[in-house]
Amino acid sequence: MQTDRRQRGNERPDRRIALTWLVLSTIFVMVGFKSLSQNQFPDPDDVLRLVQVRDLLAGQSWFDLHQYRIDPPNGTLMHWSRIVDIPIALVIVALTPLLGVSAAETAALVIVPLLTLGAILFVVGRLAWRKFDVQVAGLACLCIGLLAPVVFQLQPMRLDHHGWQIFTVALALWSISIRAPWKGGAAAGLAMALGLSISIEILPMVAAFGGVLALRWFRDRSERWWLTAYMQALALGLAVLFLVARGVSDLAQHCDAVSPAHLGFFVITALGTGAIAAAPRVPLLSLAGLFALAGAAGLTFFGLSSPNCLATPFTTLDPVVRDFWYVNILEGRPLWEQDLLPAIPGFAQLVIALAASVTLALRNRDWLRIWWTEYTLLLLAGTVLALLVWRSTALAGVIAAIPLAWLATRLLRRLRLAEGAGAKALSAAAIVLILLPATPVTLYKLLAPSVMPAAEGNAQADKVGESRCVLRDQTAKLGALPRGVIFAPLDIGPSILLNSNHAVVATGHHRAEAGMRDVILAFSGDPANAQAIAAKHGADYLVMCTDIVEPSVYAEANPDGLAAQLIAGNPPDWLSPVTFGGPEEFQVWQVEK
Known about the structure:
25 helices; 7 strands
């Protein structure tokens, strides 16, 4: 059993945590400097997030989440939360008087992700220190920087919401370790309310934390206040954050963001949980029935208020949008649809952490055995979620960091005490495979080209992966053209919005489904039909980068379609080329009306 942290007053975990943050931040900035200098964002969502913040700072209402330059004139109502915009806007506003707008935005691209990283490291490091010692705390923070799915969400220029959701999971994890049920349960509930308000995709983890706290109640009735406080704080936090971030101007029942129907579900289940807690003790089977009754009441309200939302938001997507767009967003797909060579090492770390967590539960006694059992259940829930939705690997990763650090610490100790080169080499190899499981893959990639012939089709893949368009520079040049509506592939849209004053027909965001469908049908269909679609949206220009993935998907679907013809250099006669002076892969045409 670990020594009580209150008997270790001489330890200073915050210093170790701060040092690790400084080292990781330096590495992240150095690795990402080229992308930062070239303004190459990790994902189109990060680009559009900055566009949204710019619109806010330019005077758009806090409660107005429309992107008016996507499918004008009415624009597209986004499902994103203003909560994520706050730190970005604050950094830009604070630094603009000192650096100017452009440099302030660049600073925000670095500062905000690294501040998110610091918040996560502080919570994870403090929790690891409470359960173990300073060494494990430092290694747990280091593990955060060695978990590739987590690193991707915290790198410079990653402005989207995923980093903050990782933080809310870490905060909820720390909260349920607090010894005061009301305080800890409420803190966990507020953390999950924040995460759920940022994006509803964290809902499975909200349920997982609730399930663990329900088990505490089943094990010991005096622990019922954990779940009661969690549910009350979750419902109250969601209601307050809804009013603060959304107001009352949009009370529609959206399936992809917290809406009145969701609020009703959580309020009903919170009230039901409170009533069950206040009632006299009942047998465990009856207790389970009461919980089921409260859940059924909440689901009934939700189903009656928003029947279309009983399924996931993407099940109702237009088939064209689903087949060409959604199924190609690999981060939202299950593990078995990923490129397994780089994916398996990341998932292996979760499995190793799960085994380490089980070991901790078995080797401890009393309250620590209970704690590590609960911890294992949360990690298992995160791992299953990662298996089904790959980007959720980052949520599981933040839970996996502490058991991985504990295991690495034991192996380091064994390495120091090992006698003989063989034993030391075995321990060192185990440490490398735990902390850097992609090492064999990296070595394979380095050696494979020299020992294996290139697979058929690799040349095209390389071509697609090394685009010469340089979207930042080329889309900025579009500002020299008279302002208009641009018909462009979905992935180019955010860069056009960021670097010019033009509008676009659609971007890769599902609430712009009608525009997305038209863009897909136009590029993958007959050029004559594409002209009618472009005219329907009042398009003034058509823009395409011929060596990125998206146009090649359309061309493969229809070798005689518009995208294939443009890639082949055979534009239809309703398109007039615009002299642009950029690389030949970035093409601009004026639409004849």
